[in-house]
Amino acid sequence: QPDCFDVLVQLIRGARRRLRPRGVLWLVAQEQVPVGRLLALHGSFEWVKADVSEDGRFVTWSAGGRAAGPRLAAPDGRLRKRAEEWLAAEQAEAEPEGARAGDQPRKRQRV
């Protein structure tokens, strides 16, 4: 599915285990990919930086350090809740017409 970010989520979740203590995660993605929201939901970084390309089509993300406390700055989890709501809405929009929650996704055919 074009809006499935499972691989990116797994990369972000496993980054701390794979990086050295002062290591930095670098990601380059198209502007429409919600890397910042995914880092907020699934990352455990002290800082995150984003640089937009000159033509605005790509964003270079870097994240590093270990978060001292919870993953998100908001102590009551408001940011996490908003990010989860946004991702749920994005996934709902991406479902084909007539799809139900129990339906199995169709496998894509290779061309």
Task: Walk me through what this model shows.
34% of the residues lie in helices and 22% in strands. The longest helix has 17 residues, at 78-94. By secondary structure, it is an alpha+beta fold. A three-stranded antiparallel sheet has the order 1-3-2, covered by helices on one side. A hairpin with a 5-residue loop joins β2 (45-52) and β3 (58-66). It is globular, with a radius of gyration of 16 Å. It has three helices and three strands; from the N terminus they run αβαββα.
Produce the secondary structure layout.
Layout: H1 6-18, E1 24-30, H2 35-42, E2 45-52, E3 58-66, H3 78-94
Antiparallel strand pairs: 1-3, 2-3
Helix tally?
A: 3
Shape: globular
What profile does the largest beta sheet have? 3 strands, antiparallel
Q: What fraction of residues sit in β-strands?
A: 15-25%
Span of the ends, CA to CA? 15 Å
**What is the chain-wise order of helices and strands?**
HEHEEH
Q: Helicity range of the residues? A: 25-40%
Strand order of the largest sheet: 1-3-2
Report the C-alpha radius of gyration, rounded. 16 Å
DSSP strand tally: 3
Structural class: alpha+beta
Uncertain segments are 69-75, 100-111
Would you tell me the overall average pLDDT? Answer: 78
